[in-house]
Amino acid sequence: RVDMWIDCDPGHDDCFGLTLACYPPPPIAVNLLGVSTVHGNQTVDKTAGNALNWLHACGVEDVDVYRGQAAPLVRKAAICPEIHGESGLDGFAFPQPHKGVRTEKAVMAMADRIMGNEGKVTIAATGCLTNIALLLTLFPEVKPQVDRIVMMGGAMGLGNTGPVMEWNIQIDPEAAHIVFESGLDVWMVPLEVTHKALLTQEHLQTIKQMGGPFSSCCVSLLTFFSSTYSRVFAFDQPPLHDPCAMWCAISKGKGFTHKKIRVDIEMASSLTAGQTVCDFFNLTHKTPNVQVCTDMDLQEFWRVMLEAVRRAAER
Ligand code: BDR
Ligand code: CA
């Protein structure tokens, strides 16, 4: 069993990561302590509302959602409506907004629940790292209680929202720097892996055939996500980035090819701020600080992902 906290910015692909954590096929088991949201794909108010709407659509009512930071540590906030729409979750009309975002600040709730948990906790991050950087800065005493931090983000080579920058790192490089320097067991699932997890027509058909309201909600959202990915990135099929990191967190890296290397975050350059500089050959002679995933067992990923959606649809 994995005791887990999820920090996210839903966001279409974040939602499927949440579903994977809520409905993993047995014998896999996740004890979800809470969900916090962060600015990113949309404003933090919208991502918090989306997380609640989505959990409700999945039939999950016993997981609390907390609103985190509205802006990066140092820089100006940016949002990504070109991919996720004005709501952050366009493509399906949720009965808006599902009420009940907790009033406690996300960072306080994370510190409290992680410290109060009997066993060590895995933090799965599928948005930028502002909340987590703040958590580690304000409450360094949580560190011994953190089993690992698994995040979707970064790139070994080409980026998606900058030539060599991936969105989650690009929008708050200083936060990523704090997390990568934390000394914790940090896992990075970069674009080179997530760009392999492409949602095919067959996957969409499988979800459609599950039937029922949750299945049609998934199909509508994924169809929207497909259309923005094809318009903005000319992708025939959209990548489900965030569930890859979620799967890595749940499987504890099983099924992933990974290597602990030195990764530094570029923060100074106006051209490449947010680049994850991956030193595969240890040319810098610095101590390795991040487990970088370079590949994933795709077949196993899609098996658990689709099974989780089926379990949510058939509940
Ligand atoms: C990441 O950016 C967001 O738009 C997605 O939800 C994902 O976390 C991909 O670069
Ligand atoms: Ca995300």
From TrEMBL:
* Keyword list, A-Z: Glycosidase, Hydrolase
Q: Which GO terms describe its biological process?
A: purine nucleoside catabolic process
Q: Which family does it belong to?
A: Belongs to the IUNH family.
What is the organism of origin for this protein? Vitrella brassicaformis (strain CCMP3155)
Return the protein name.
Inosine/uridine-preferring nucleoside hydrolase domain-containing protein
One Pfam family this sequence matches = IU_nuc_hydro
Cite the Inosine/uridine-preferring nucleoside hydrolase domain residue spans from the record.
Answer: 4-303
PANTHER family noted in UniProt = INOSINE-URIDINE PREFERRING NUCLEOSIDE HYDROLASE, INOSINE-URIDINE PREFERRING NUCLEOSIDE HYDROLASE FAMILY PROTEIN
Q: Does the keyword Hydrolase apply?
A: yes
Molecular function in Gene Ontology:
purine nucleosidase activity
